[in-house]
Amino acid sequence: MNNLLVNIKDLTIGFPNGGEIFNAVHHVNLEIKAGEVFALVGESGSGKTLVSKAILNLLPDTALIRSGSIEISGEDILSYSPLELRSYRGKKVGMVFQEPLTSLNPALSIGMQLSEGLKIHSDLTSAEVKNECIKMLNRVYMPNPEEALKKYPHEFSGGMRQRIMLASVMLLKPDLLIADEPTTALDVIVQKEVLDLMMEIVSEEGIGLMLITHDLAIVGEYANRIAVMEKGRIVETGNVEEIVKNPSHPYTKKLFSSVPGNARQEKPRYEDTEPKPPIVNAQNIEVTFPIKKGLFTPDQKFKAVKDVSIKISPGEIVALVGESGSGKSTLGRALLKLVDTSSGSIEVLGTDITNLSDGDIKDMRQNMQLIFQDPFSSLDPRMRVEAIVSEPLRHMNNVSKPEKKQIVKSTLVEVGLGNEFIDRYPHELSGGQRQRVCIARSIIMKPDFIVADEPVAALDVTVQKQILELFSELQKKRGFSCLFISHDLAVVSDVSSRIMVMYHGYIVEEGQTNKIFANPVHPYTRALLQAAPKLPGHDVSLPDLTTEILPDNLTFLSTENIKDDSSQLKRQFLYDLGDGHKVAVLPTER
Amino acid sequence: MTRIMKTRRYNEVIGKYIFASILIMIIIGTFYTPYDPIAINLDNILSSPSWKHLLGTDQFGRDVFSRIMSAGRISASVSFFAVMIALVLGTFIGVIVGFWGGWVDRVFMVFLDALMALPGILLALAIMMVIGAGMSALIIALGVAYTPNVARLVRGIVLSIKQKEYIEASKVLGNSKVYTVVFHVLPNCITPLTVAVSSLFSAALLAESALSFLGMGVPPPSPTWGGMLADGKQYFSTAPWVSIFPGVVVSLTLLAVNLLGDALRDRFDPRMNNM
Amino acid sequence: MIAYIVKKMLLAIPTLFIVALIVFCLMRSIPGDPAMILAGDINDPLIVEQIRKSLGLDQPLPMQFFLWGKQVLSGNLGFSAMTGEPVFETMSKRIGVTALLVVPALILSVLFAVPAGLYAAWNQNKKGDITIMVCLIVAISIPSFWMGMMLILIFGVWLGWLPTVGYVPFGEDFWQAGKYMILPVISIMLVEMATITRMMRSNAIEVLRQDYITHARAKGVSERNVLLKHTLKNSFAPTLTLIGLMLGSLLGGAAVVETVFSIPGIGRLLVDSIYARDYAVVQGILLFVSLIYVITNLLVDVLYPFFDPRVKL
């Protein structure tokens, strides 16, 4: 009667909690058709993962299904016996997990993990199984599939592991693929590759895809239908285009308005009216880390930051963008002298800090602060909020205790935390509240320069927006300069006036935010912008790159150049295209 | 789920009750015992448990129950002070090498590996050979013998704390290394160390009774649980009560400490047992 | 592979050097003049002087360490004061006996611990798990020597099934020898077994919580294979490290259990030598025990990559 692949009716899942039962999923109804990309969207704790696990009947032991039914291709899977379940799992429904680092067994070879499912669900001979595996690895564009079968998961990058996961699931030709935040742990360019590949395979096989994600931009780019979950309930469901254009539920509206990057157009550029001496002026700095090899082999060196110059004017927010491992955090820490530079000079507030001793830099620390990425690890778990925020004040000798408490209170109010928070411990706060405490601690001594290292990366999208707004507001009020580090171009476009793009330790492009978004020049910047998923209606097609932009004797410092890093790179420099828009180039060989 | 919680609660409660009863017995034993635990009474050698002598008498006619009561103080205080020595020394060393790292750490690790290669009991035996027998010697020997374990543990804890961003945050705020260690590193060591202390205490108690059993413990006539076991060994087949009951008390004490240790571990690392 | 083993072996050298230094310092700081002790009743200063010279005791300390080290490396551990035999010979007679006690105990512990730990983890917080955990915590709380005495009392004295104390070499009467070893092996292994099981259980619980286990289940892998194929290897790797570390405490425990059962092993020899102030033998045993410990842990390091391929060879 129906071509419904998934038909969930009135599903309620609860957990016993001290005599009572706490419902984590409330009366959820869901339908997915074959050949459809269905997105289940929600913030952390919304119950979206529980729903997906229920489809595989893989709920934790303590979970109780309190009402409802789950039918897959018309069969009630909740009534399956353990044996029936085993032949159903994998064969009918496959699942790809979020964290490619932990979803493959580190102790078993790729070949064993790939073939395992086929051996359970088919009668193929070993040779046939191996053949199938190689075919599948070819389909996910794995180079050298034969070799790959003998390797172990740790020998592959995150993106490659996610391809292997996809291969191992698709080998069994399931009717439905569930992907639970499949690319959250990946860099944006790799994310696009993996998602494109997933869509390609799903549409070739004509199967259904249930995409679980918190990222609305991904939904907008890839999904046909969407269901929005909040606190265990589905609050809105429908076609993606309609909901993006016209969300009706308040939560959906809030969610969509929180997507960063929407405010891009109105962003005023930083006006450099009267040139003042820069707050931060770093020239040609390099940071080198030794790689410990053991007692008997000499340490190797790893250059995290290569020949970077950076100037930040008073009151300016400069964004530093790059993928994980690009050296952006190291650069930020070098500007605060939290890591030592191996060459170059850094001036902060007119003082050359490159050769300052630990003791001398201590006196300057109040004036140069850092906001951390992870609000869970950057607060001492054994201190109360008051102690955390007032810690910097201990350097002020002429202020009495009650006065200090008053300063703490007013600073907390400034970051939006009332007096009731003063006696709490960090674990009693939500992620957003913790990040507010971190900000309060950083600004309490009124610093002139702040490095914000991915301050919103660990937060849900609605909280993210609140914190970003708070941050911009505080910056306007207090006028500090800031280096804003992020992997997310959309986030950056909302707050910064100038952007620097970093790749493998090099700055490859820098310029005014509007310029970079409207007319990116460097191939890597363009790739980044193109890879970032966008909501429908926000597509900005990049202008074609005019080749004449560089003089004849220069070429871009390409990603290939950088990857096979050799000494010739010493010749690279930033070429000024005018108005502070610079791009990394190499002189061409003669 | 609730039944599980109950079982776990039972374990903790049982642990607490046993521990409390033994503690009370030890405290009373310090001031009062039914009979003199040391005085020899040759009229009453190896008499079996009766109403007069609840747990019987030993080869010198001394009341076993009275001796167990008074031995508790010595056994417990030896273990307690040994643990304290190991804790103070080990934490000091562990924090320094863990926090400062570098070559200090490398040299220290070689030393530590070497010390770990000598099992605790053997190391304690060797140390007692140098500094002689006696209660304080026993305390020092056990304390020193268990220091490497504590140092190793603390070093590991400090290394993981060092990764936490609040340590870098402390540096960003302009705090000195010493300040950071005292106000941020040490307080965060306390929780994991509390769990370790319980297993350390049971190890020390076990080692103390083993050494006493080997005749290397507190010299007679002061009774210790291990020493009583050793005394009873000769009369084992004819008068088993002389060694059965001290063993029961040692085992119960160890059981209580282990149960409480597990309860602590559950509380501080709830992932391990609860879901 | 070979480079990895060689590297690990080279790393063991500084450890052994420090062990030797510690043992040497311990022995030299024993109060009293070793020469006087060796001379015993002979109170002739000339003879004492001679002994001192023959032992190299008139040299400065670092030189003494060097000379002593050279001797140790050539297998000369000095002579026992009790028997006058070379220490090496005295020890080698006893080592086999202790090995017969420790090796079976270790093997049996692991054979029990691995399945029991996996089973308990899989049944976490259910009846089977709770029963095992209660038994284990009781086992850990009973001192091995008292356990030994109780076993003798029950199986030897009251039931009369097994011999009480003593030792028969396996060469003489195999069955009889085996019977004599049963109770000592049980009493020494219970604590180790319980410790390894608990470790195995908590590792397996940690592994069972991983995404790759859910992934395996989502592929339709049976629970049996989830445990045997996906959990066993991963949770055994850290357990292996513990087993290496436990050998030390097993050898320490041997001293006590051998005393209870009157078994002429190396632990008993150590206790006797300490009583007799036979320093050369004590020194030899300490060195030997730490050598065994280092070798075992070397073996563990070599085996480790097999269970966890992330550790590079």
Low-confidence segments of chain C, given as residue ranges, are none
Question: How is the main sheet of chain C built?
Answer: none
Which overall shape of chain C is indicated by the principal axes computed on the Cα atoms?
globular
Q: What's the rounded overall pLDDT mean of chain A?
A: 85
- Strands of chain C, total number: 0
SS-based structural class of chain C?
A: mainly alpha
Please state the structural category of chain A. alpha/beta
Shape of chain A: globular
Helicity range of the residues of chain A?
Answer: 25-40%
- On the 0 to 100 scale, the average pLDDT of chain C is 84
Beta-strand percentage of chain A?
25-35%
Topology of helices and strands:
The complex is a heterotrimer of chains A (590), B (275) and C (313).
Chain A: E1 4-17, E2 20-33, E3 37-41, H1 48-55, E4 64-72, E5 75-76, H2 82-88, E6 93-96, H3 110-121, H4 126-139, H5 145-150, H6 158-170, E7 176-180, H7 188-205, E8 208-213, H8 216-222, E9 225-230, E10 233-239, H9 240-245, H10 250-258, E11 280-291, E12 300-312, E13 317-321, H11 328-335, E14 343-348, E15 351-352, H12 358-364, E16 368-371, H13 385-390, H14 401-414, H15 431-443, E17 449-453, H16 461-478, E18 481-486, H17 489-495, E19 498-503, E20 506-512, H18 513-518, H19 523-531, E21 554-556, H20 559-563, E22 573-576, E23 582-587
Parallel strand pairs in A: 3-8, 3-9, 6-7, 7-8, 13-18, 13-19, 16-17, 17-18
Antiparallel strand pairs in A: 1-2, 1-4, 4-5, 9-10, 11-12, 11-14, 14-15, 19-20, 20-23, 21-23, 22-23
Chain B: H1 2-31, H2 64-100, H3 102-116, H4 120-131, H5 135-163, H6 165-172, H7 177-213, H8 225-233, H9 241-268
Chain C: H1 2-28, H2 34-39, H3 45-54, H4 61-73, H5 87-122, H6 127-141, H7 144-158, H8 174-208, H9 211-218, H10 223-261, H11 266-275, H12 279-307
Helix pairs in contact in C: 1-12, 5-6, 5-8, 5-10, 5-12, 6-8, 7-8, 7-10, 8-10, 9-10, 10-11, 10-12, 11-12
